[in-house]
Design goal:
The complex is a heterodimer of chains A (about 450) and B (about 350). Chain A has about 450 residues and is mainly α. Chain A folds into two domains: about 40-200 and about 305-454, ABC transporter involved in vitamin B12 uptake, BtuC (Orthogonal Bundle), CATH 1.10.3470; about 210-300, no CATH class. Chain A is about 75% helix and about 0% strand. Chain A has a two-stranded antiparallel ribbon. In chain A, a hairpin with a 2-residue loop joins strand 1 and strand 2. The two termini of chain A are about 15 Å apart. With about 350 residues, chain B is an alpha/beta fold. Chain B has two domains: about 1-130 and about 270-310, Rossmann fold; about 135-265 and about 315-350, Response regulator (Rossmann fold, 3-Layer(aba) Sandwich). In chain B, helix 3 runs parallel beside helix 11. Classes of the chains: A mainly alpha (about 450), B alpha/beta (about 350). At the A-B interface, helix 4, helix 7, strand 1, helix 11 and helix 15 of A face helix 3, strand 7, helix 8, helix 9 and helix 10 of B.
């Protein structure tokens, strides 16, 4: 570290000088990197948050302040939810050195089946009629079970059949899409059950697919408490096994940022009022007098976002706290070592695909509910968005590396670009060009930075 | 012999028998139909039976194959149909440009070609379709009648599909003057990849956000996208208040017309199209000159060609004439009237 004295460096030759310059920069940044290390935060994650802030601010300036309104952010959260939900599962699939190309077709197939269930089979074939209170639950449960079966079948062929996942899921991409045409003959299935529609964050009359003001705050507080609890318990566990723990200030800072993010989402969602027409109708139905300034009824966190938060928590828990998750990362790091260590590699891989399938079903419910229809091209090319979200979020194709929160952030980055460009009326081919460049640039930049650091 | 090899190369076992010698002389006249993608509901359910019926009524024989959305497969399929003895070929083109060499070859061999529903830029082909410019016109007309001034959003279809621009040019015939005078302001106009309803929904949400909901009318080019648009309007409590157009006669869309959330659904009865094409094909059997077919007129294509065409007139369905689709057996009353309150719409009771 002695090379950081500038006087010495200037006297030496070219390469040596640049070397000492790097060393100087490194030592100047030492307190910062040291702080980051004690925060134990992925620099990649920080970079992504930075990129997201830059994108948001730029769009806000160019759109004349529309982008960062509560309404646009609320829309953005709903528009990102379905891709984000699937991206959490894709992280585990890619971490274990596999890929699932079939998620878009699977989503279409499952969405179509769920739509048939609630709009045709339950009310007409079984003669139970429309709008039954149990319709939505039954549909959702059957959809998720079917998703797990379909995904599990692909996983079985990959794990026990020894067929590469790229091939199996490429086949799945064709088969599931083909099945939609086969048994529904290209018809649009609509309208859907009104309670089911709530899952998409839409509006039916005065029922809105969102939590409303106080339940949203409650959700925020509960999630905060959960985050704090998890941090305390993990600190304790580390102590017990003699692992190093973060400094108290670092612990507090991470907790405050995580809590702040959750409460920030709630605050934004509650600043978005019900649209005027819906609010007036709501006031009429509930006998609320409309004040002269208009009615401000907070919308609250949309159900698709609530679902996304729950999925994030569950999958993160599975990935970091359960044996299953440890196995997935171990397999991704070194499959042979994992097998020799006694891990049931095949079973674990099959389970990741089954999880992916059930998450595709959840996303299918969100998408069909949002559109209030199942159409034949439901979910077309979603596999590309989901894989991009996971990869932008730091998941590595070489296996063993990737986080669920990163993937969520990746999905939000992608959707921010898309929604922002539509807001500015950029046409769709240009949107594709921009998203494509960003995808390659994000991963490329990361690779460069990583090489420098190591 | 060369053709025979080409046919074999395509791997259609069905065709191989035709290679042995001269094609078996079928009684009457054989009409071949090349579908681009038979998986889509419409062709199997409405178009094919109508074509078949018209052909058998004229004493002809129907054969067909499916290109499964591949322009290459379709080119060889057209060859296959002629080698199977088709005297007239009806083509639903996957790609109106890529199919041109195969069409030219068929016509050189004395087999007239009907471009079915989608344009093929060959001056010797007969183009049978619903007038797509007119469809756009009818869509705009109904919306314009409901809301003649204010902010318009225009949701167009796939950029690569010529129909998206035909429809848009038809719309311009109705609203063009009002746009020039400033009575109508276009606050958002986007193409939609693959005519995807979910994309149309997101686009509509962003247009509403950018304009603080000040959108007075929406011209959507088809029914699927109209569904996405209406979902976005519903979220803002605007469904039924903002007129929306569409076309195709989708069940869900006709139901929305009955519910009052969609203003117009321009309906093109595929059975009429199929019948017209089938009858035209039978006439071409006797005289291969397309200009001699009943009801043809000259059609100027975007590529600068002039070809003979039969343009059928679509029927705009609004709340007032829902009876038409019901009487035609296009939709059941249960599907049409699902969720419609009693006494609101006369056909629903």
């Amino acid at each position: 570290m002695g090379a950081s004295v500038p006087g010495e460096a200037s006297a030496e030759g070219g390469p040596a000088r640049s070397q000492s310059f790097v060393a100087a920069v490194r030592s100047a940044l030492a307190p910062v990197t040291g702080a980051l290390r004690s925060l134990e935060i992925d620099t990649r994650m920080l970079g992504m948050i930075g990129a997201l802030i830059v994108i948001w601010v730029l769009f806000n300036i160019v759109s004349g302040g529309t982008f960062l309104t509560a309404r646009n952010l609320w829309n953005l959260s709903v528009q990102s939810a379905s891709i984000a939900i699937m991206a959490t599962g894709m992280v585990l699939v890619i971490v274990s050195r596999n890929i699932d190309l079939s998620v878009g077709s699977m989503l279409g197939f499952l969405g179509y089946t769920m739509a048939m269930f609630q709009a045709v089979w339950i009310p007409q074939s079984l003669g139970l009629g429309f709008e039954q209170p149990f319709t939505w639950v039954l549909t959702l449960v059957i959809g998720i079970a079917l998703g797990a079966a379909v995904g599990g079948l692909q996983g079985f062929i990959v794990a026990y059949g020894g067929v590469p996942s790229f091939i199996v899921t490429l086949g799945g991409l064709l088969v599931w899409r083909g099945l939609i045409f086969r048994y529904a003959q290209g018809q649009t299935i609509a309208p859907l059950d009104t309670t089911f529609q709530m899952l998409g964050g839409g509006t039916v009359g005065t029922r809105v697919g969102a939590l409303g003001e106080w339940p949203s705050w409650t959700l925020g507080v509960v999630m905060c408490v959960a985050i704090v609890y998890v941090m305390i318990s993990s600190r304790r566990r580390r102590r017990r096994y003699g692992f190093p723990v973060r400094a108290i200030w670092a612990e507090l800072l991470v907790g405050a940022v995580a809590c702040g993010a959750v409460l920030g989402i709630v605050l934004v969602a509650n600043s978005y009022p019900l649209p005027v027409n819906v609010a007036i109708q709501y006031a009429e139905e509930h006998g609320i007098p409309v004040p002269p300034g208009g009615l401000f009824i907070p919308t609250g966190v949309a159900f698709p976002v609530v679902i996304m938060l729950i999925v994030t928590l569950v999958v993160t828990f599975l990935a970091t706290r359960r044996r299953f998750g440890r196995y997935v990362y171990a397999i991704g790091g070194n499959p042979d070592a994992a097998a020799l260590a006694g891990i049931n590699v095949r079973r674990t891989i099959m389970l990741t695909f089954a999880l992916m399938g059930s998450l595709a079903a959840v996303s299918a419910a969100v998408q069909t509910a949002r559109l209030n229809a199942a159409v034949t091209n439901l979910g077309v090319q979603n596999e590309l968005d989901v894989i991009s979200a996971a990869v932008i979020g730091g998941t590595s194709f070489s296996g063993g590396i990737g986080t669920v929160p990163g993937a969520i952030l990746g999905a939000v980055v992608m959707q921010s670009l898309r929604s922002g460009m539509v807001l500015l009326l950029v046409d769709s081919p240009t949107q594709d060009i921009v998203v494509g460049i960003v995808l390659v640039a994000a991963v490329g930049l990361d690779a460069v930075v990583r090489r420098r650091v190591s | 012999m060369r053709r025979c090899l080409a046919v074999l190369a395509t791997g259609f076992t069905l065709v191989v028998s035709a290679c042995g010698g001269p094609s078996t002389s079928a009684p009457g006249c054989t009409i071949g139909v090349s579908w681009n993608n038979y998986q889509e509901e419409r062709w199997a359910k409405w178009d094919e039976p109508a074509i078949k019926a018209a052909i058998s009524a004229g004493g002809g024989k129907y054969i067909s194959n499916d290109a499964k959305s591949s322009p290459e497969t379709q080119a060889s399929n057209v060859d296959n149909l002629t080698s199977q003895g088709a005297k007239v070929v009806i083509i639903l083109a996957q790609d109106g440009t890529a199919i041109k060499p195969a069409v030219a070859k068929a016509i050189q061999n004395g087999v007239p070609v009907i471009a079915y529903d989608r344009l093929i830029e060959d001056p010797k082909a007969l183009y049978v379709t619903f007038d797509n410019v007119l469809v756009g016109q009818l869509e705009a007309q109904a919306v314009f009648k409901a809301k003649g001034t204010g902010n318009y959003a225009i949701i167009k279809g796939n950029k690569a599909d010529a129909n998206a621009d035909f429809l848009r040019s038809g719309m311009d015939k109705i609203i063009g003057d009002a746009v020039k005078s400033g009575a109508i302001k276009i606050v958002g106009e986007t193409y939609t990849d693959n005519w995807d309803p979910a994309k149309a929904q997101t686009n509509m949400e962003q247009i509403l956000t950018a304009n603080q909901n000040k959108v007075d009318a929406v011209l959507s080019e088809n029914d699927g996208m109209a569904g996405g648009v209406i979902a976005a309007l519903t979220a803002q409590g605007l469904a039924g208040k903002v007129p929306v157009s569409g076309q195709d006669g989708d069940k869900a869309a006709l139901n929305r017309v009955a519910l009052g959330t969609q203003t117009v659904d321009v309906w093109k009865d595929a059975r009429l199209l199929g019948k017209t094409a089938g009858e035209a094909a039978m006439q071409l059997c006797n005289n291969s000159d397309p200009s001699k077919v009943k009801g043809t007129a000259a059609f100027k294509t975007p590529g600068g060609n002039s070809l003979n065409s039969i343009l059928l007139t679509p029927n705009p369905i609004t709340k007032d004439n829902l009876k038409d689709v019901l009487d035609a057996g296009w939709i059941t009353k249960a599907d049409l009237c699902q969720g419609v309150a009693a006494g609101k719409v006369s056909v629903c009771g």
